[in-house]
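Provenance

Sequences were taken from public entries as deposited. Structures were produced by running a predictor on each sequence independently, with no templates supplied. The record for SWIM-type domain-containing protein from Caldibacillus debilis GB1 is shown for reference.
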Amino acid sequence: MDDLEYLILRFGDHLSQNLHYRDGSDQHTVQRGLFLYRQNRVRSLRLSDDILYATVQDVVPAQVELDLYLKHGSCTCPEKRICKHQMAAFFAVYGRFFPVSEWLETWRDRSEQLSLGIFSSASPKKGPVAEPKGKGSRKEILESTARKAAKSFFKSVVSGKNDMSSLFFQIYADMAIQKIDDSLSSDWEMTPVEMVFACTVFLQGVFEELEKVPALSSETAENFLDLFDVFVGKIENAIARMPRPLPFKAEPLLNRLASISGKFLEREEPFFTVRLYLYWKIWADLLKDKSRRKKEFDRLSRLFKKSGENELLAQAFLCHFFLAGRMKETLTALNASDDGYYFLHHIFLSYSLDNGDLRTAEKILASILHILPGVIENRSPDEIRGFHSWLEGKLFSYAEESGDYDLAEKLFSGLFPHSARSLIRLFLKTEQYGKLSDLLLAAGYGVDNIEGKLLKEISRKDPESLLAIYHWSILREIEAKNRNHYRKAVSHLKKLKAIYKKLKREEEWNRYFDRLLKQFRRLSAFREECKRGKLIHEA
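Predicted structure for SWIM-type domain-containing protein:
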């Protein structure tokens, strides 16, 4: 360690002694300083004679000086004590040598007089933690580390009724991830398996802690959902990187995973869907051994007979029917669920398409069509939009691979108007321009809402399908009753006339235009624009 690193660590130690984690004012100072640092607001950072100079961009730019040797700071802002600008400058220089998250944990540990046994509170560690010797198997080491990380994380972000801000929530999530990363071995075959195992243990530990808390604020619940997204993403990425087949030495971890995953089902709340998805992901993509799945199926059967009211257990049970290829029982349950199992439709369809099983995908899509009225009736508009957003990509993937667009059309039609854009895309893909025209009119789209390139394509391939849209658009412009709209109506009329001519239906055009002039005979300005456009003369 060189002299500068030593001075930075010593200055950081000084700050952690003078700022108290449980003091609201100090916590706010650190939080705002961290925000400025992470937003790259620290500029012109330079060091001269052990004094750090920095400019921090804020509403009013602040000039900061930190004397690393004398452990003293000053700032041009009105604050008389350690301020957010000094903290931002400190984080900027500290972060060049050490992880900022480690200072934050040291600060927290010192304030609470905790010793986590993972990070040293005396100084930042260098590189990964050495693997403990004589303290248990890899499985035991990983599980112990992940459980300690979960307890530490939970204690940090939830204390009684005080919910932690999202910024600090993310910081402590990063710390937990770092602890897990440092506990992994360097064995390339085992690292992905260990990552899945450690993340699963961590999440189960968080669930256990959550069960002790009576209620969470909506903001904190959202923070936990963000946390789950991060860890589920790590599990998914690790599974994708696993060697196939897995090494024999992974068996102890897999056996323990089977046991831990079952604990997700012991309580339905909080976070029902997250629990179900984690359970599904582990058994669908990792624990594929038939004998292990059969053993789990039998275990769930016994549990289900004892507690038939457990909806989470029932849906997990259905996952095993699906994985065993028992589609008759699976579809019977899905179709009878109204919209209650629509998340299972989600994961079953994704699994089928990812594995190229179009036959099963078709059956799941047909089941979705069956429950669609229940989804529309019972779900909120936001939930329906989210359902459509997910389904859109899956449907087009299925249709393009199978060539079956009829099922996609039925499903999108059932989700209208949320699916208007999807139907437009579908009708363009299948060149059903008549249906496209009807849809555009139903959605309130006129000629001006259609891109010029698309308009030319339809005009070339199926000009007749544009007649109704032009008729509607022309009426809308005329009824606006101002000259600019009349000019636009004349422009549309000239294009409409060209379409009639292309279809060799000039007489029909003449009758249509005569009726239009009679209908709006009192609008002299409109007639004038028709003359300027040489429509009346030509007519």
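Residues 218-241 form the longest helix (24 residues).
Confidence is low (pLDDT under 50) at residues 113-134.
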